[in-house]
Structure to design on (1707 residues):
């Protein structure tokens, strides 16, 4: 039987969200951008004209050339193809973002969940620790960490992770505090469910929209942050291509050898833009769903 | 004759918020008898939900005590208590986790209390859903796709899953349509009769009380104004406040309007004592 | 018979993108005459609110709404003349909302909002004049200390008080038509009763036409002269209150009537376990006094 | 009860400050490289280095060093910078105002450009101005500040040289001496109108470069908060009562939407203090942020600890200020205590 | 008013006792005076504050010029010279190592005569005096605060970090370590000024390359720093109103310092292999700005061309992969399992190219090569320990005095405590012996022979790859005339050529 007025067809959860997502052309564009970039990054070895330009190589006969037939976007100060290096730069940026978020998100989410649900002293202590990490200027924190670790890709990622998780803790803390007021949490409590169950099985699934949205937006910001670190020489080491360092180093040649930093800057813009559009789209989609 | 299931003895609750005190419940003594539907009515803020919270052990009382089946209720509830006293909330929209299936929600108490063998629980969930008038395949659905009445039925099924003795219903139908409300009330009535449940039924709608309750307690500003069997309250409300509540009920027939107006005016009905 | 202030004819409304639309109103026709109190009853989701919002010209601007048919108010078509109707909002036609507290801006004092309301009726009004009028209007709805109320924020007043403020605002510009979308149901039964009483008195006094929206026939009976019963985007029955309650024709109307618990006792209404199928409603007209040429 | 919650916040901030001082102290000491060696310069001998280590307690256990630091701190002594050879307090006193001035002007730009952009977008939701506004905001957010710096410098300093591209003031204008260190204020106090205009002129490009990301963020936040508010019954009410649409956008819906925006903007502003260094670098701005980075690279311990503490304190103070502002704008918080 | 604005990357240190690098030298040269000054157009020194001197190898006696006045108005006396030396040695920073432990006594014989007694005969002492700026002892004492130097308090350290106490052609007007030092003309300077010498000099620190580029184009700065990438200099050179100037070199070598204490470079054959594998031609090509200017010229060994003992007949270096492989075959390490890490100094972008070039060529020999970008401050620290010093790092080392000893002794003597200059960690008895001999010998011709022999020995040992001699190229506005940077004939030792008083600035 059904109550009058009840929708008779139960739709699979999420399909409404997908519809909402699809209806916004900007979000779809974002998805396309991201897909293309991911595809290019994954198959960089096959798609780039000079894959060897990623390694320790310099073709000083061809250094600092503007865009041409052979080198679509020009070459850098080492005579390496910019297009190739940008695509590999994407590869690195993506790995970076994925690793950073894969570590920062669970840490921040768990801290936020526990502090938000437990309240009291647990809340106070955990959130003050979070505040400490928030109040130290992020780059200072990252630099300090990079300072005592070797400046490698992995350590760079760790450093960024250390400054990233508090934002998730904050976000999830707020979401959890709101969700904890919801009836379903009360219901689970009255039934006698364990704290673990309530936090992870009841509240956490409702944090996913916030987490996913923030993660997609953050992919872009991690890349930006990594590029700021590279600007200080604290990121990936040469010759590995890194979009941030490319912009930073290239900027020294502005405006004469403009291609050195303009293309990587545009490349950063595109990837960050792509993920931001996806993030915006997700946010709207999740809103439409509820 | 009737056995008390829950006794409140001088129960009080005071909230301290931002440095000012709110007396939400002011020394309430009340007895709930087994098998009854005991309604608690009162305007917004009169302390109805506070009683529910105290009974469920969701917050400690400031003063007084409670006895369940003759035994004092501890502040930290045992699993048995958590199982024996269940809750159906006012807002069916938020009472079900939107990201878990209906089945998972109904199954939760079975898992928590280890009711039945794990393999059989699926069947049990189906049985419960059927009992509240939903087909078994609702278990797979998300609460998002359900109407208010359906959600409230799921919430009732979840409460039933514990095989409780007492169910606290905090305004279970006030967010529903009149027609849907009537059906949910019907369901509750039937379940009580079949299972011998006891209801602590919180509402502000006296018409609903008239239809479903056996006893009524009227609250105002944290105090018990009057209590008694439903017929006598309606026949002869003692306090002006109760009369006011009854007077506000919208009615559909002339005859009822007449009854209501009499009550509102405060003139004693034939049963009256004055 | 008085001329209708509001005439809705064959109103259809669909939501969604251009390609994928779901129709929620399937051709509603109704009218409200000057000084008449008309009720629109129906279950949740049947389309009561959207009808009212369309009539107020509030929905048309959204890109996801697609409306057709005609809504004539003051001789303007609200479907096409969105801007025209916008100019009349709050002036010739006003609205009261279900939850008064959330319908008042939490960051402005009542005074500011009241001024704004009065100004939408009379752009030239001075602050002092507006305040004077506001005080008078609040006094009229029996607010004990109008000055204090004006200097309060909505959250500082009780729900009942806010409801009175809303009514005062709605009637401040002496509109020809007042729409009340489930006024007071978000509050207590007692407040709801008071609200209806107040509205009744004030509109009676001023000859304002009212379109009351509710799902409770009990409420309607106390208030309305005439009733439209809406079911899933269609008007299934209409007639004068007396006729409709005395002799409901449509099974859905009957079910609605039966669903209301009786204070005379007798337990719960006896409803069939399965909902009757109201899908193909016969449309029942009872003393509707349809304006000439209307097809219903 | 605003005061009580304010006290509570200040207490929490103090706890956080202590935590930060420990954290940064520990980090600064475990960083590789011998600060004494770096202090003495590349030509120093091992003995000289050892002597300096002893003098600065660099060989003592961390807690001992921390205790020494606290003792000095209580005297208002943050130690000496190896980078500038001056007391850290002198450096901070000189460089903090420069950074603050830059960040404040940035914040003003952020609000003056970001909020209207967001309002416009929300008001024309789904139509052309919205798409344009969103795109501008998105691009502003998606481009790193140093890129903005270089772009602005090239556009308005090189190709079309209408703005100064470096420094705080023209060489020909005497550097104002106090009292605040904010050139804009000091020059006004000194009655030097031309100097004031020049200082402002110098601020435009760096402040804009620094503001870009926050500005985009502000526009996006304003838009989404406005859209949330537009769904609220009171906006429907406002429309139903015939309030002018533009008035709804700029006042009636904006004020409640501004409250959550303000909270985030406050954080954004506070974070700017620490993140300004790339812009400071590009525009040769003698600010604290750049100083902080320079001293980290040089392992200038005292200066690192001092700078981080000041920036963190500014961050926390800013947070408290934002809370107070929010509670002033949000009557619900402001008056919550009033009734009790 | 004539203003001269110059750029420089690192912060300038105005306390002469702490001066170490280029900017510090420029400041010291212009704010202070020294007893002697590097000679124009060749090795050696010429009189400055000292009018004449006598020596027997172990004692030096100087007659001071009469009538020289400090900026404070105090006359410059022998006491000030003694004070300056003591101050430098006591503070133990900057170039104190040139004097510490060597000068046993400094005494003022009379107000205009000063005598130094050395522990042993030490030929480079005279040249070292170009690194001893004379401070005004009265002013310093007047401004001292409590410190660790007993009666001298802090030796005026705090005060001198923001003010000067010199007698130079310019005096400090203001010092902001993060942005600039502003100096104004000291009109009573005893050597006078060029006709259009600047009234105010603004020495700007830490200005980024694109900013310098724009400032120069806008005519807002007169002279760029030395560290711009060649491409940028090239582009600016073609711009109207701008010209290129060069500091012709001769005292600064670009050394690829090989860590001789760490496997596999503790084997000379491996080092030689790298030396032959290094691509000298491409390096020079990278440094080429146009056919007239380049940032480097070929180098023939440890000594740059402007110093005593330079061997112009030594064979030039060139890449030769066959010889490299032959050397490698004799090396006891297998290149495949011997990783090599190359550091490049983050502050100088052009070095990345050299590092990558090395990475490319060394990889061809089979070494796994890692390139690490390292800030200078960290490099100076890392290289002091053999096990943290990178295998190869390009460092420019300049002769700090017009004497080869100031360059080579610090680099290759096993007796000096390790510093950034000795990142090779070389321990070779013959090198040590030759270095000592060079110091003790007073006769100039014999000294030249000793250094030639030393050069030959170093070529065999290959502790460093002698990549190129650094020649600085700056961009200047046409409006300025800088005699010190206009041709080899007019030039002194690197670093000593930016004398603001010689520069003329057209209106
Ligand atoms: N957690 C709390 N903190 C502070 N005060 C509270 C809290 N919970 C309830 N109160 C106050 O206690 C009083 C009684 O609240 P209660 O929720 O029991 O009322 P109610 O009768 O359930 O009202 P309603 O019909 O609106 O649900 C109210 O004044 C309320 O503001
Ligand atoms: N903005 C909208 N977008 C899409 N669908 C909508 C929108 N507004 C209303 N609807 C749908 O239109 C139908 C009618 O809604 P309406 O709000 O008019 O119902 P109602 O009769 O007022 O119900 P209630 O008694 O619950 O207020 C519902 O199915 C609702 O889901
Ligand atoms: Mg309640
Ligand atoms: Mg509605
Ligand atoms: Ni009809």
């Amino acid at each position: 039987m059904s109550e009058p007025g009840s929708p008779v067809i139960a739709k699979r959860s999420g399909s409404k969200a997908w519809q909402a997502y699809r209806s916004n052309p900007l979000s779809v564009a974002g998805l396309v951008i991201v897909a293309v970039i991911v595809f290019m990054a994954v198959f960089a070895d096959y798609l780039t004209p000079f894959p060897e330009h990623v390694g320790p190589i310099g073709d000083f006969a061809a250094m600092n050339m503007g865009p041409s037939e052979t080198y679509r976007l020009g070459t850098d100060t080492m005579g390496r193809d910019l297009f190739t290096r940008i695509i590999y730069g994407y590869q690195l940026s993506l790995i970076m973002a994925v690793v950073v978020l894969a570590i920062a998100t669970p840490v921040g989410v768990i801290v936020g969940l526990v502090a938000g649900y437990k309240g009291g002293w647990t809340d106070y202590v955990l959130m003050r620790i979070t505040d400490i990490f928030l109040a130290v200027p992020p780059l200072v924190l990252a630099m300090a960490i990079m300072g005592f670790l070797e400046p490698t890709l992995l350590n760079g990622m760790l450093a960024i992770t250390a400054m990233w998780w508090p934002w998730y803790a904050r976000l999830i803390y707020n979401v959890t505090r709101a969700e904890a007021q919801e009836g379903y949490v009360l219901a689970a409590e009255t039934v006698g469910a364990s704290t673990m169950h309530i936090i992870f099985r009841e509240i956490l699934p409702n944090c996913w929209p916030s987490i996913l949205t923030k993660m997609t937006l953050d992919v872009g910001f991690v890349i930006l942050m990594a590029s700021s670190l590279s600007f200080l020489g604290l990121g990936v080491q040469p010759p590995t291509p890194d979009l941030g360092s490319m912009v930073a180093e290239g900027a020294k040649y502005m405006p004469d050898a403009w291609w050195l930093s303009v293309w990587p800057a545009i490349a950063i813009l595109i990837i960050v833009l792509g993920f931001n559009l996806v993030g915006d789209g997700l946010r709207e989609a999740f809103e439409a769903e509820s | 004759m009737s056995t008390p299931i829950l006794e409140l003895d001088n129960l009080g609750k005071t909230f301290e918020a931002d440095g000012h005190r709110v007396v939400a419940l002011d020394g309430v003594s009340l007895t709930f008898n087994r098998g009854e539907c005991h309604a608690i009515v009162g305007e917004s803020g009169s302390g109805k939900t506070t009683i529910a919270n105290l009974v469920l052990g969701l917050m400690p009382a400031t003063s007084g005590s409670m006895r369940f089946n003759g035994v004092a209720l501890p502040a930290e509830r045992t699993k048995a208590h958590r199982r024996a006293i269940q809750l159906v909330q006012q807002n069916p929209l938020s009472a079900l986790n939107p990201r878990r299936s209906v089945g998972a929600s109904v199954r939760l108490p079975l898992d928590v209390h280890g009711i039945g063998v794990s393999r059989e629980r699926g069947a049990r969930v189906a049985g419960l859903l059927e009992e509240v008038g939903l087909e078994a395949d609702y278990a797979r659905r998300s609460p998002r796709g359900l109407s208010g009445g359906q959600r409230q039925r799921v919430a009732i099924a979840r409460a039933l899953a514990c095989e409780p003795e007492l169910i606290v219903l905090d305004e279970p139908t006030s967010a529903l349509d009149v027609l849907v409300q009537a059906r949910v009330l019907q369901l509750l009535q039937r379940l009580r009769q079949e299972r011998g449940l006891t209801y602590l039924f919180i509402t502000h709608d006296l018409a609903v009380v008239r239809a479903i309750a056996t006893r009524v307690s009227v609250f105002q500003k944290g105090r018990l104004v009057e209590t008694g069997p439903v017929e006598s309250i309606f026949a002869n409300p003692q306090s002006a406040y109760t009369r006011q509540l009854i007077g506000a009920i919208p009615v559909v027939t002339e005859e009822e309007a007449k009854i209501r107006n009499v009550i509102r005016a405060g003139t004693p009905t034939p049963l009256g004592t004055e | 018979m008085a001329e209708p202030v509001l005439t809705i004819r064959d109103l259809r409304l669909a939501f969604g993108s251009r390609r994928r639309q779901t129709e929620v109103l399937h051709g509603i026709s109704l009218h409200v005459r000057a000084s008449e109190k008309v009720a629109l009853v129906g279950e949740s989701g049947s389309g009561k609110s959207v009808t009212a919002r369309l009539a107020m010209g509030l929905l048309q601007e959204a890109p996801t709404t697609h409306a057709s048919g005609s809504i004539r108010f003051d001789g303007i078509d609200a479907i096409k003349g969105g801007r025209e109707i916008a100019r009349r909002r709050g002036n010739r036609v006003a609205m009261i909302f279900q939850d008064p507290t959330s319908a008042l801006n939490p960051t402005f004092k009542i005074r500011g909002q009241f001024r704004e309301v009065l100004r939408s009726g009379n752009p030239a009004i001075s602050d002092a004049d507006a305040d004077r009028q506001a005080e008078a209007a609040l006094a009229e709805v029996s607010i004990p200390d109008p000055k204090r109320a004006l200097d309060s924020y909505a959250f500082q007043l009780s729900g009942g008080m806010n409801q009175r403020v809303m009514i005062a605002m709605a009637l401040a510009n002496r509109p020809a038509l007042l729409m009340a979308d489930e006024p007071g149901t978000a509050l207590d039964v007692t407040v709801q009763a008071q609200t209806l009483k107040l509205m009744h008195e004030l509109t009676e006094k001023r000859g304002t036409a009212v379109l009351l929206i509710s799902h409770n026939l009990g409420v309607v009976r106390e208030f309305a002269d005439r009733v439209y019963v809406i079911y899933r985007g269609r008007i299934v029955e209409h007639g004068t209150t007396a006729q409709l309650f005395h002799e409901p024709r449509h099974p859905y109307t009957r079910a609605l009537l039966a669903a209301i618990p009786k204070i005379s006792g007798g337990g719960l209404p006896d409803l069939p376990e399965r909902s009757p199928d109201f899908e193909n409603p016969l449309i029942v007209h009872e003393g509707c006094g349809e304006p000439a040429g209307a097809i219903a | 009860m605003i005061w009580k919650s304010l006290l509570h916040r200040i207490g929490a901030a103090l706890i956080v400050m202590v935590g930060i001082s420990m954290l940064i102290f520990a980090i600064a000491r475990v960083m590789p490289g011998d600060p004494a060696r770096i202090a003495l310069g590349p030509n120093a001998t091992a003995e000289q280095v050892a002597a300096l280590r002893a003098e600065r307690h660099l060989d003592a256990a961390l807690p001992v060093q921390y205790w020494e630091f606290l003792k000095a701190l209580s005297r208002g002594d943050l130690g000496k910078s190896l980078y500038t050879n001056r007391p850290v307090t002198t450096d901070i006193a000189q460089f903090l105002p420069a950074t603050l001035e830059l960040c404040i002007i940035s914040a003003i730009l952020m609000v003056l450009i970001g909020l209207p952009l967001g309002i416009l977008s929300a008001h024309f939701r789904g139509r052309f101005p919205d798409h344009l506004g969103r795109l501008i905001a998105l691009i502003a957010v998606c481009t790193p500040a140093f890129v903005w710096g270089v772009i602005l410098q090239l556009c308005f300093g090189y190709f079309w040289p209408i703005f100064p591209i470096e420094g705080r003031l023209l060489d020909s204008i005497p550097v104002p001496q106090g009292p605040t260190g904010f050139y804009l204020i000091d020059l006004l106090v000194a009655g030097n109108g031309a100097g004031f205009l020049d200082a402002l002129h110098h601020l435009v490009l760096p402040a804009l470069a620094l503001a870009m990301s926050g500005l985009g963020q502000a526009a996006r936040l304003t838009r989404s908060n406005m859209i949330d508010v537009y769904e609220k019954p009171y906006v429907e009410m406002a429309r139903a009562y015939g309030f002018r649409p533009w008035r709804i956008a700029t006042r009636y819906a904006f004020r409640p939407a501004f409250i959550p925006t303000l909270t985030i903007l406050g954080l954004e502003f506070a974070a700017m203090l620490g993140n300004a260094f790339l812009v400071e670098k590009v525009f040769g701005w003698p600010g604290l942020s750049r100083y902080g980075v320079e001293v980290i690279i040089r392992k200038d311990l005292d200066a690192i600890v001092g700078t981080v503490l000041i920036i963190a304190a500014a961050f926390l103070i800013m947070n408290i200020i934002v809370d107070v502002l929010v509670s002033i704008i949000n009557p619900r918080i402001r008056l919550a205590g009033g009734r009790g | 008013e004539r203003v001269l604005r110059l750029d420089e990357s690192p912060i300038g240190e105005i306390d002469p006792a702490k001066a170490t690098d280029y900017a510090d030298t420029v400041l010291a040269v212009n704010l202070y005076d020294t007893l002697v000054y590097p000679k124009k157009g060749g090795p050696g020194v010429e009189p400055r504050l000292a009018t004449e001197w006598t020596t027997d190898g172990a004692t030096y006696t100087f007659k001071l010029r009469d009538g020289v006045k400090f900026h404070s108005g105090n006359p410059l006396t022998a006491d000030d010279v003694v004070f300056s030396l003591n101050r430098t040695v006591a503070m133990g920073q900057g170039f104190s190592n040139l004097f510490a432990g060597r000068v046993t006594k400094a005494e003022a014989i009379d107000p205009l005569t000063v005598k130094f007694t050395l522990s042993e005969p030490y030929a480079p002492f005279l040249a070292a005096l170009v690194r001893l700026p004379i401070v005004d002892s009265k002013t310093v004492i007047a401004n001292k605060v409590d410190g660790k130097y007993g009666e001298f308090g802090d030796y005026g350290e705090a005060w001198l970090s923001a003010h000067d106490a010199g007698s130079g052609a310019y005096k400090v007007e203001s010092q902001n370590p993060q942005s600039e030092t502003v100096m104004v003309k000291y009109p009573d300077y005893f050597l006078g000024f060029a006709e259009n010498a600047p009234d105010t000099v603004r020495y700007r620190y830490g200005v980024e390359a694109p900013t310098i580029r724009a400032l120069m184009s806008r005519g807002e700065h007169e002279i760029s720093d030395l560290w711009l990438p060649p491409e940028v200099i090239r582009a600016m050179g073609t711009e109207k109103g701008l010209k290129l100037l060069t500091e012709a070199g001769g005292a600064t070598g670009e050394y690829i310092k090989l860590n001789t204490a760490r496997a596999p470079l503790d084997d000379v054959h491996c080092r030689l292999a790298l030396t032959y594998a290094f691509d000298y031609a491409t390096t020079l090509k990278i440094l080429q700005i146009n056919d007239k200017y380049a940032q480097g010229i070929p180098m023939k060994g440890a000594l740059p061309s402007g110093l005593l003992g330079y061997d112009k007949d030594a064979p030039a270096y060139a890449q030769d992969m066959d010889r490299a492989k032959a050397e490698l075959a004799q090396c006891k390490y297998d290149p495949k399992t011997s990783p090599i890490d190359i550091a490049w100094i983050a502050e100088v972008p052009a070095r990345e190219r050299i590092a990558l070039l090395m990475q490319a060529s060394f990889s061809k020999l089979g070494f796994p090569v890692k390139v690490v970008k390292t800030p200078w401050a960290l490099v100076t620290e890392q290289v002091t320990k053999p096990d943290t010093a990178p295998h190869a790092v390009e460092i420019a080392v300049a002769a700090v005095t017009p004497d080869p000893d100031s360059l080579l002794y610090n680099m290759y003597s096993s007796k000096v405590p390790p510093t950034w200059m000795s990142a090779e960690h070389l321990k070779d008895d013959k090198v040590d012996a030759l270095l000592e001999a060079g110091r003790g010998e007073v006769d100039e011709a014999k000294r030249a022979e000793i250094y030639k022999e030393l050069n030959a020995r170093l070529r065999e040992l290959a502790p460093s790859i002698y990549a190129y001699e650094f020649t600085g190229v700056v961009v200047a506005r046409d409006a300025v005339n800088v005699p010190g940077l206009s041709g080899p004939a007019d030039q002194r030792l690197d670093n000593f050529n930016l004398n603001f008083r010689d520069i003329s600035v057209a209106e």
About this structure: Chain D has two domains: 2-74, 94-297. The CA atoms of residues 10 and 312 of chain D lie 14 Å apart. The pocket of adenosine-5'-triphosphate (ligand 1) is lined by residues B 15, 17, 22, 24, 42, 44-50, 204 (CB under 6 Å).
